Amino acid sequence: MTLAAPPANSGAPQRFPVVVVGAGPAGLTVGNILRAASVDCLVLETETREFIEQRPRAGVIEEWAVRGLEKRGLARNLLDRAELHTACEFRFDGERYRFPYGELTGSHHFVYPQPLLVTDLVREYADVRGGRIRFGVRDVAVHDIDTDRPSVSYLCPDTGERQVVHCDFIAGCDGARGVTRASLPPERVRIARHDYGIGWLALLAEAPPSADCVLFGCHTRGFAGQMPRSPEVTRYYLQCPPGDDPENWPYERVWAELQERLGAAGVPPLTEGRLIEKRVLDMHDYVVEPMVSGRLFLAGDAAHLVAPIAAKGMNLALHDAFLLGDALVAHLTTGDDSGLAGYGEACLRRVWDSQEFSQWLSEVYHGTAAGDPFRAGTTLARLRRLFTSPAAAAAFAEQYLGTAARY
């Protein structure tokens, strides 16, 4: 049932086949897939449109994910504007080691900051495909998920009145702190958690990248990373104590540590610039099982969080969204329930694969700084093996590019 789109935040209609909670990459992708099939849906978002289009987040998108977006008509700007990366570089023991995964596999990464992708997705959903979206809603709650008449309620930002929207399905795409995960019956849910016991100081610098690829510095003082975002802006990471105060890291200390940890023989110093973002991330993971309860289907960070160690978070969110969007369309248009029945299991196979790789890569990044000579020795052995063993290189490339578990 396709209805003319009312203005954003209007109160009608009050029934949709699908309500999507959260307007990040997962929620907007699900919404776009539904609208492409002429399935009516409503997206609810607590923030403003301007906020979600500017919020700094991930920037590395794996090739299979881009092809999934392209298949659904959601990658036009991305394909025109994204940078292609075919190599990364490890720096350890004062030397640089380039890893040309493009040559090994024929595959590459796309670098396209998440705010740009969200801007593309929300424009396609709301402005092109006529999808309903309400920004700035408050106090969202889900109800009756174990019945065939679930609903979602929220406080309207214009009137302050509680609105109730009835639906057939709820897509919980509202992230790690959202309400949908918290709405799962605790007696039916297992949440597996892992804490790495380290922090990363996440930085955005108004400075061009100092290399044409991602840099991984595995140093006795701690990990450092460079992740290009654009010709003018670069993402950097510095290992730090968990819970550290960003104010402990003034400009001079940040750049001194980056220069030290990412330095190598024969390379010029990093290009420095103004720091426009500075926050500490405590490295941890979790996985929610099952990802489905009744008519509530979780996707993205609402269902699983992977620390940014392996740059898998946004890619996993897109994988969930492809599976969930396609499964909902199949059910609502043809009555085919097979996709919905297998949704959680299919998602979790890739999620656990990414979690295992993140743990392996964490030891590579952080082992030399652990203060344990044995860990430092085994870490260096892993690093050297990447550049001396074709089998080890192929296995790493497969995991790094996300091609081990193709969608």
TrEMBL record:
FAD-binding domain location: 16-357
Coiled coil: none
Keywords per UniProt: FAD, Flavoprotein
Protein name: 4-hydroxybenzoate 3-monooxygenase
